[in-house]
Amino acid sequence: MSAVLRAGLLGLGMMGRHHARLLREIDGVQLVAVADPAGDAHGVAGDLTVLPDVEALASAGLDIAVVAVPTRFHAAAAGILADADVNVLVEKPIADSSKEGQALADLFESRGLIGAVGHVERFNPALQQLRARLADGEIGQVYQIATRRQSTFPARIGDVGVAKDLATHDIDLTAWVAQSRYAAVSAQTAFQSGRSFEDMIAISGRLTDGAVVNHLINWLSPMKERVTVVTGERGTFIADTATADLTLHRNGTAALEWESVSTFRGVSEGDVTRFAFPKREPLRAELEAFRDAVNGEVTTLSTMREAVHVLRVVEASLQSAGDEGRLVRTAETAATLV
């Protein structure tokens, strides 16, 4: 690799414009080529010629590229770049199906290339703090991880439903902070906006380490909510990923004096701590990690294989919802479950 990585960007839409800004700002990277068949709606190309397609981008002599186009184009575009020996960060989900995603992961591994997926919540400061504190055993055994991700409908999303667009965030962050994969899920969906894709999903399941998981996700709420709640044997963490805040509610240790309450042998309220820590822009941190991975460093980027697992969990959830909420085991763990 050259000392400065030559970078390309496919897709100049809502996400692409932020990638373009950051690829110009981070050290060790030079944005040298951009492409979008639809042109440059946000005027982010600057003095670069907007190339017409991924084939033209792949011919630009790149070291790395970011793929920020609609989901149905992810696998084909990343595959063309891999054939040109370009390391790629593709926006989530990895592909339109886990089968496509698996083939893509195999391709990048066979070529010895870095293939990463933009599960950007891994770089949310609150979740990074949460993962480290869980790994240190701060609340002991984790019993449950629950997430809520609710907002209004984004007009820019037209090719997938809320499960592939938003639930992928929650599934990846849950597996990542717990450092455990999904064993099985059940789900319910709703179609309220007149589209062929679901706009609401509720997922329940269990991780392979035994923790119970719950996800409430929709495009039907007149507010924005991004919350992760982790309950363990010694307390509960609450991460607000919209503000990158992390709070710990510890189990109480003082004896309860109220007779009617003290007969209940559960936990009581203890100290509450809101942690202070640096808050960097997650997308910037993710792109820097991509640069570092290409330069041979160990990072917390989502690998393509990890992203395939996330997509398999989404597919299992949609399968369950189509079968009246029946429990569906994920493909990787089905053989080991009773």
Automatic annotation (TrEMBL):
Ranges that cross the membrane: none
Top-level taxon of origin: Bacteria
The keyword Ion transport belongs to this UniProt entry's keyword annotation: no
Residue intervals of the Gfo/Idh/MocA-like oxidoreductase N-terminal domain: 6-119
Protein name per Swiss-Prot or TrEMBL: Putative dehydrogenase
GO molecular function: nucleotide binding
GFO/IDH/MocA-like oxidoreductase domain boundaries: 128-237
Entry keyword set: NAD
